[in-house]
Specification:
The chain is α+β, with helices and mostly antiparallel strands. It has three domains: about 45 residues, no CATH class; about 80 residues, GMP Synthetase, Chain A, domain 3 (2-Layer Sandwich), CATH 3.30.300.20; about 60 residues, R3H-like domain (Ribosomal Protein S8, Chain: A, domain 1, 2-Layer Sandwich), CATH 3.30.1370.50. The protein contains six helices and nine strands; from the N terminus they run βαββαββααβαβαββ.
Length: about 220
């Protein structure tokens, strides 16, 4: 199914990246049309995306029940907290969760989930951070919460892996370190982990605060 989104930003690159993230595609899978560059940029991005199966809408609220076998107290508390947050900002949909080893996976699908994702996933990261705190208050052992809303994290992971592949290939080709775009801590960890299996390159982070980014370097390069 072909889908188009229009996004605005301070720059064309910022608007383009926001549109690609919402569609869950990489740049080479999309067509970008610059609509305006005056007083901020506006772009239209079109791509073929997988059509989501129609799902029954379940409204979060006090009467919502979460049934399942052997649900831990930590998982129950995490799910209840996420449901409360989403309900508070007017997002309704389906929620699934399960625990594997020390990780609680929570997935939310439904209508307009944008308010729970935010610009570059910042809101999603904030909700995830708070959910981790809640879950660990109800667990004797350390647990980690992996929260995905509207499939954003899965799509973003695919984009990050593509960016990491291109950075590694360029570093090996030119024999010099390559700086990637600024990313949040979770995305930087994703790059470090993903490129561990790539022979001939190393990774480290540089920069401060919002400008912190991953640098991919050939192992033979000198700092």
């Amino acid at each position: 199914m072909q889908k188009s989104v229009v996004k605005t930003g301070n720059t064309v690159e910022e608007a383009r990246q926001a549109a690609l993230e919402e569609l869950g595609v990489s740049e080479d899978q999309a067509t970008v049309e610059i609509l305006s560059e005056a007083d901020g940029a506006e772009v239209k991005v079109t791509a073929d995306v997988e059509e989501d199966a129609e799902e029954e809408v379940v409204y979060y609220g006090d009467d919502e029940s979460y049934e399942g076998d052997d649900v831990s107290e930590a998982e129950d508390a995490a799910v209840a907290f996420v449901a409360e947050v989403l309900s508070g900002i007017g997002i309704h949909g389906n929620m699934d969760s399960y625990k594997e080893d020390d990780t609680i996976y929570i997935s939310v699908s439904g209508g307009d989930c944008g308010a729970a994702i935010g610009r570059h996933g910042e809101t999603l990261e904030a909700i995830t951070y708070m959910t981790n705190l809640i879950a660990n208050r109800h667990s004797e052992d350390r647990v980690h919460v992996h929260l995905d809303v509207g499939g954003y994290r899965k799509h973003r992971e695919r984009i990050i892996e593509g960016l990491a592949d291109r950075a590694a290939s360029k570093a090996l080709r030119i024999g010099k370190p390559v700086a990637m775009e600024p990313m949040n801590p979770a995305e930087r960890r994703m790059v470090h982990s993903y490129l561990q299996s790539v022979d001939g390159v190393t990774t480290h982070s540089e920069g401060e605060d919002a400008a912190r980014h991953v640098v991919v370097a050939p192992e033979s390069s000198e700092e």
